[in-house]
Design brief:
single chain, alpha/beta, 8-stranded mixed sheet, 7 helices, globular, oxidoreductase, EC 1.4.3.19, FAD/NAD-bd_sf, Glycine oxidase
């Protein structure tokens, strides 16, 4: 076997993004995952790359903002090499404003966004009357942000995996770790850490989502009643998702998903009658701090970790790949304090 500089354990979105970023720096990379790319939470259907609210700014929010800004170039580069579309587009998002208090908060956040988003994206208040594709809003006003983007999770992972292979990386179901090793093994990785600790370091949270047959490919996504409505470019709309701490079957869908679909249709009556083409469930890794765990592995000397991208994994992925490649290949550590493993460990 040829010498390898970096071994990535895990072929979810974090593992693949780190592998790709290392390949771009000239490293020889292998990815090992017994179940193959996107077998776990990264094989979902929703793909909402949504920003944090522009207020109470901190390193975590700045990191996510930078990653969302990086995303267009990141995914364009992946697609150019792989020849496969990840389904990425930055088309923004609309949210209903339920009451006068929320309207005032939205106005303040619009002011904040002007400074915090550096002119690279906007947070605006707009009228429902100006948008044919819009959720019901009690105030007749909406928040429109231009930072939110969409991606098709499975197709994005397939595009990344193919790009890695095209650049000379390997993706196998088994193999021997060589070179620098980084663990991006999702829920299994969090369970491994928790087993060696006196408290839970992280856990799996089940999420359910669905795809509807409805073509709104170039329209913004909707966030209403805590439900994401995400148009994809293949004639489907993703609806999601639940957050379930307690569950018996991690891959089954049930009435909890029915409720999410019903709430989406209540917010967007135009979706009534749309056919459900797929129901999906999976378990997402959530660290104790709720932030990603990035840096030196707490248990494995000389190794690294990238885990815990709960709900924001795809949005964080471009920046996660960059900072982990910086750390492993160049010894440059720019990871926010709140993302370091000790924040959860």
């Amino acid at each position: 076997m040829a010498m390898v500089d970096v071994t990535v354990m895990g072929a979810g979105i974090f593992g693949l993004s780190v592998a790709w970023s290392c390949l771009l720096r000239g490293a020889r990379v292998q990815v090992i995952d017994p179940d193959g790319p996107a077998a776990g939470a990264s094989g979902g259907v929703v793909g909402a790359l949504a920003p944090h609210v522009p207020e109470n700014w901190n390193d975590k929010k700045a990191f996510q903002f930078e990653s969302l800004i990086m995303a267009k170039a990141f995914w364009r580069g992946v697609q150019e090499v792989s020849g496969l579309s990840p389904g990425y587009a930055r088309l923004g998002r609309l949210q209903p404003i339920p009451d006068v208090h929320s309207l005032e908060m939205a106005r303040q956040r619009a002011e904040n966004a002007r400074a915090l988003w550096q002119g690279k994206a906007e947070w605006q208040i707009v009228s429902v009357e100006d948008h044919d594709w819009a959720p019901i809003s009690p105030t007749d006003y909406l928040i429109r942000d231009t930072l939110t983007a969409r991606i098709h999770p499975r197709r994005a992972c397939a595009s990344l995996a193919e790009a890695i292979r095209m650049r000379g990386g390997t993706i196998t179901q088994e193999g021997t770790a060589q070179g620098m090793v980084i663990w991006a093994t999702g829920v299994a990785g969090l369970e491994y850490l928790s087993a060696a600790h006196t408290r839970t370091v992280g856990n799996g949270v089940k999420g359910q989502g669905a795809l509807l047959h409805f073509n709104a490919a170039e329209l913004p996504q909707i966030f209403a009643d805590s439900v994401h409505v995400v148009p994809h470019d293949d004639g489907t709309i993703a609806i999601g998702s639940t957050s379930e701490r307690d569950y018996d079957d991690p891959t089954s869908t049930d009435t909890a998903l029915d409720d999410v679909i019903a709430r989406a249709m209540q917010a967007m009556p135009i979706l009534h009658g749309a056919r459900v083409v797929e129901r999906w469930a999976g378990v997402r890794p959530r660290s104790r701090s709720r932030a990603p765990m990035l840096g030196v592995h707490p248990l494995n000397p000389g190794q690294f970790i990238a885990n815990g991208g709960f709900k924001i994994g795809f949005g964080m992925a471009p920046k996660v790949g960059q900072v982990m490649a910086d750390l492993m290949l160049e010894g440059m550590d720019t990871i926010p304090q709140g993302f370091r493993p000790e924040a959860s460990y």
